[in-house]
C-alpha cells in the first residue's frame, strides 16, 4: 500500500492523464493541418505526446513497485525522477519547436536532455534500490 504522500502523487499523476488526452487532440490538429505546423513540429509534437503517456505509466509503475517493496532511501526518493522525466521530456519536445516554421529545435531542447538524464537516474535508482532491498530482506 502507498503512504499518503505517494497516494497524493499518484492521484495528481492520474489526473494529468486528462491533459495528455487533450494533448492528443492538439497533436491530431497539427498532423491533419487544422493547426499550422511544419514537419519538424509535427514530429516533435508526436514524440512529446508519446513520451508523456509512456513515462507517466512507467513512473506510476516504478513508484508502486518501489513503495510496495520498501526500497530504502535515497533510492526511493531518487526513483521519483521517472515521474519528473514525464514532465521534462515532453516539455522539451513541445517547447523546443515553438514559433513559426522552425528549421531546427531552439535552445529549450536542453530540457529534453535534462529529462533524459533524470529518467536514467530515476530508473537506475529504482533498479539498484530494488536489488538492495531484495538482498537485505
User: Low-confidence segments, ≥5 residues, pLDDT <50?
Assistant: none
- Give the tally of β-strands: 0
First-last Cα distance? 18 Å
- Number of helices, counting only DSSP H or I runs of 4 residues or more: 5
Organism: Microbacterium caowuchunii
Protein name: DUF423 domain-containing protein
Keywords: Membrane, Transmembrane, Transmembrane helix
Give an overview in words:
The chain crosses the membrane at residues 6-28, 49-66, 78-98, 110-135. This protein is mainly α and 137 residues long. The chain has one domain. Helix content is 77%, strand content 0%. It is built from five helices and no strands. It has helices spanning 4-32, 39-68, 75-78, 81-95, 109-136. It is elongated, with a radius of gyration of 17 Å. The two termini are 18 Å apart. The mean pLDDT is 96.
Key descriptive features of the protein:
membrane, mainly alpha, transmembrane helix, elongated, DUF423 domain-containing protein, 5 helices, 137 residues, 0% strand, transmembrane
